[in-house]
Structure formats: C-alpha cells, structure tokens
Design goal:
By secondary structure, the chain is of the alpha/beta class. It has helices at residues 40-49, 60-63, 70-79, 93-100, 111-115, 117-127, 156-165, 187-197, 210-222, 233-236, 242-249; strands spanning 10-18, 21-25, 33-37, 54-59, 83-87, 106-109, 132-139, 142-145, 150-151, 170-175, 200-204, 226-231. The radius of gyration is 16 Å and the shape is globular.
C-alpha cells in the first residue's frame, strides 16, 4: 500500500468516443473495438459520483478523420463537475479554439505536435500551459500520428525535448503496443521522458490491475515528473475499482 510520503497523482478515468458511444480499442486499431456503453453522460456521472476530479476524453472519430464528437464533448464538459481533458483530431488553431472556448479544461494535441510544432507554441502562448497538453503516442521510440495509423520521422525523446522548449509542461505518453492490452504501462520510458524533458508526464496505455497503479505510484515517488495516469479498459472490465484507485494514488 502507498504510504504518506508518496506524492499525489491525478487519476484520469477515460472515455473514448466513437460515433457517440464509449468504446475501447486494442493498440489503437479501429477494427479491434469493444463497446462498453452507449451513454457517455451516464459514464461521466458515475466517475464523478465515485470521486474522480478529471475525465480524459478521446474523440476517435476526429482522430481518424471520420467526423467528430466535439459538440457531445462540449455538452459533457458543461453538464459534469469533472474537469475535462480531451484530444483527438486537434490539428489546427481553429480546432483548439472550438474546444477551449467551451468548458473543456485542457486540450491534448497529438499529430500537430509532430507536423506543426509552431502551432503548439502558439497554443501555449494563447491559452497557457495549464490548458495545453501534448499526447506522445509511440511504438518504441517512433511517435505515431493520424489516429496512430502512420509513423513519423522524429525521435520520441527529441520530440519531448522540443515540446518542453516550446513551453509545454504536460505530456501524455502512451505505449501503443500496450494500449488496451492490460499488460502494465511502460514506466521506464515514461519516467525517462519526464526526466529528460523536464515536463510532467501522464502515463497511459496498459494499466490492467491495482498492482499496476501501485507500480506507478512507487515510480513517481522515486523518479521525478510522473504526474498521473489514465485508466480506461481496466475500469470498464472491473479489473480496477475507481474508488480504490483514487485512494491508492492519493487523488
């Protein structure tokens, strides 16, 4: 059990939206989808009732270039006491404006951080570092773009360093090979990213048990920069209890 000397971490229960429904994908593959709920409002309400302060919402349709759920996300942000962090398809200044002029607390830039780094710097300057995060989703040291369907030519650590230089203070690191697989997160790389970039890192991808959360908390206590964790499939499948998880992380 985590002792009082361990730092408080933020737990982000996840809602992945596709055609307005709550789903999870394995390793980001569009054809490996599991439907968990048809009413995301009820899911968000339950997260709030159980004590969560944040929710991480991914707009899969926008990420895949197949429409968007932004109006739904806006209504979720307005109707829930949860602080909403959302990403997926935010690739232009207009996209960010559409999201951040609503009740959404934080926007997560993904593909654009690789393809249009100047946009990230503009976003931090305009909206402030607290309202901008960058999602680095990678296979090995190769960040993926466009809904994880394409690779990139940049190095994971080089990208993180350049983002920190541009003023980004929050990175969300996902090991794609572990995402949705319940095999545990890639803590070594997450901690290395935090230490080498100086940014705070939210760990995503692979959490499958309470033991994984314990490992994240222990890593955060011994290495600087791990700030939180995103949990999705493990919550929906009952492998992680949200109330217990919040207690374990001090959230």
């Amino acid at each position: 059990m985590i002792d009082a000397t361990m730092r408080k971490l933020t737990l982000f229960p996840a809602i992945d939206l596709r055609r307005g429904r709550c789903v999870r994908l394995e390793q980001g593959a569009a054809d490996r989808e599991t439907l968990y709920a048809t009413d995301p409002f009820r899911v968000a309400e339950e997260f709030a009732r159980l004590g969560a302060e944040w929710v991480h919402i991914v707009d899969l349709d926008a990420a895949f270039g197949e429409g968007s759920n932004r109006e739904l996300i806006r209504r979720l942000a307005e109707s829930t006491p949860l602080r909403v962090q959302t990403g997926g398809g935010l690739r232009t200044d207009a996209d960010l404006e559409e999201v951040l002029e609503s009740s959404v607390q934080r926007a997560v830039i993904g593909t654009a951080a690789v393809e249009n780094p100047d946009m990230v710097a503009r976003a931090v300057e305009r909206w402030g570092a607290d309202r901008i995060a960058v999602g680095i989703d990678a296979r090995g040291r190769v960040p993926a773009v466009r809904g994880w369907r394409e690779g990139s030519s940049v190095d994971l650590f080089d990208l993180a360093g350049s983002l920190a230089d541009a003023g980004v203070r929050t990175l969300i690191y996902t090991d794609i090979d572990r995402d949705g697989m319940l095999v545990g997160p890639n803590l070594d790389t997450a901690a290395d990213l935090a230490e080498r970039s100086g940014a705070e890192v939210i760990v995503s991808g692979g959490v499958g048990s309470a033991d994984d959360l314990e490992a994240i908390a222990v890593a955060a206590a011994s290495r600087n920069g791990i700030a939180g964790v995103i949990v999705g499939k493990a919550l929906y499948e009952g492998r992680v209890d949200l109330v217990t998880a919040l207690q374990r992380l001090g959230a």
